[in-house]
Amino acid sequence: MQANEFYMTHCHPKYLHIFISLALLFICLQTVSGKDFTLVIDAGHGGNDPGAIGTYSKEKNINLNVALKVGELVRKNCQGVKVVFTRQTDVFVPLDDRADIANKAKADLFISIHTNALPSGKEAVGSETYSLGMARAKENLDVAKRENSVILYENNYQERYAGFNPNSSESYIIFDYMQDQHMKQSAELAKAIQNQYQNSGRPDKGVHQAGFLVLRKTSMPSVLTELGFITTPQEEQYLNSAKGVDELARNIYLGFVDYRNMQERHKSVILAIADEKKDEQTSNNETDNVKEQNKPAREENKQETSTKKEEQAPTKEQTSQNTDSKQDTTPPVKESTDNNLTPIFKIQIYTSSRSLREGSAQFKGLTQVDYYLDKNIYKYTYGSTSSYSEIVAL
Predict the structure, then answer these.
(1) Sign of the alpha-carbon torsion through 37, 41, 177, 207
(2) Where are the alpha helices (H) located in 78-156, listed in sequence order?
(3) Of 165, 256, 273, 344, which sits most exposed with the smallest number of CB within 10 A?
């Protein structure tokens, strides 16, 4: 939970344009710098962790086959994209280490590839993709529990994951509070991948949210995709076939390409706005220069006008007569005193793609919860004070 993240929610309008200009300039500099786009591909499970087990195959091998194929497609067809794998062989990599690999690589995207399973006697077909969040449906929670049970292979998992129990529903409450700053991008990537599954004829199991530990610590848009159900006989055959590996890898690859193109189009719009702001600023500067050059002339005209007014000023007797005949009821002009630049600190406790009612169970009994809308995401806050020490204590 990133409850110690503070937001300065009130900014004086005088300085707002400065903040916007600096932000746009930063985006421009990032684009000009030509930084490679880094994609991290994570093949779930591995080594002594087989993952889900089918009639004759293991999840860890299916995941690796598809992951390597996705990486091959990206390297061959996407210039300027660096591919990083969390594993390229049959080795065990702890969940935290997978996120660390992505963070150290300063990755732009993280895609974790897995294979689904169901209890004995149940069958299903199709692919689905998840982003980080609270599982609202039991089926999503079951998937998260199964994938998170990987930590049981780690000797120090209770210490490493702060007592998290992958089989306890109560442990997943933390994901109800977790704030994913990349929520929107992660959902867009998940949707792009699902669209490709659907286009290829795969049964569409949809886009969902759930509490996956492997996504928890990544500092970039991240998704986990479930290729299919290894416990369904016809699905197991497909997942292990050359055709199945090629098609699934191509779907993920095309979903990545669609997402990246969408982000580039969005970036182009931002850069266009930045150019407009730059032109506007240049125009304003030119106007200010003209005003500065004309200042002496204005001062001279002002003095001449003042002299004329003195010459035309009414006598004391005339003023007295005017006052007697008509009472002046014009109120005095009140000088603006809006110079309060004090920041207001609040604690962000929850984000949601939809508006929540007052007293919602998501607030866990907290009252006087406020919110603001940021790019179609509702961000809920608690507390409000200009004192940094007070907000830290709260």
Answers:
(1) positive
(2) 95-104, 138-148
(3) 273
43: enclosing H helix or E strand = strand 37-43
Residue 97 CB-density burial (10 A; 0-12 exposed, 13-18 middle, 19+ buried)? middle
Residue 105, Cβ density class (10 Å: 0-12 exposed, 13-18 middle, ≥19 buried): middle
Contact 92, 46 (CB under 8 A): yes
> Edge-to-edge strand order for the sheet containing 6-8?
6-8, 345-352, 377-385, 370-374
pLDDT of residue 244: 97
Residue 218 has pLDDT above 90, yes or no: no
Asked if the model's pLDDT at residue 217 lies above 80, the reply is no
Distance between CA atoms of residues 365 and 131, nearest Å:
27
Which residue has better confidence, 365 or 389? 365
Choose the most confident range, by mean pLDDT, from 110-119, 216-225, 372-381.
110-119
Structure-token pair, residue 362 = 């998501």
Say yes or no to pLDDT of 324 above 70: no
CA 326 to chain centroid: 65
**How many residues in the chain?**
394
pTM for this structure? 0.55
Distance CA(105)–CA(82), nearest Å, equals 10
**H or E element at residue 21:** helix 13-33
Is residue 66 within 8 A of residue 113, CB to CB? The reply is yes
Mean residue pLDDT of the chain comes to 74
**Cβ–Cβ under 8 Å, residues 117 and 52:** yes
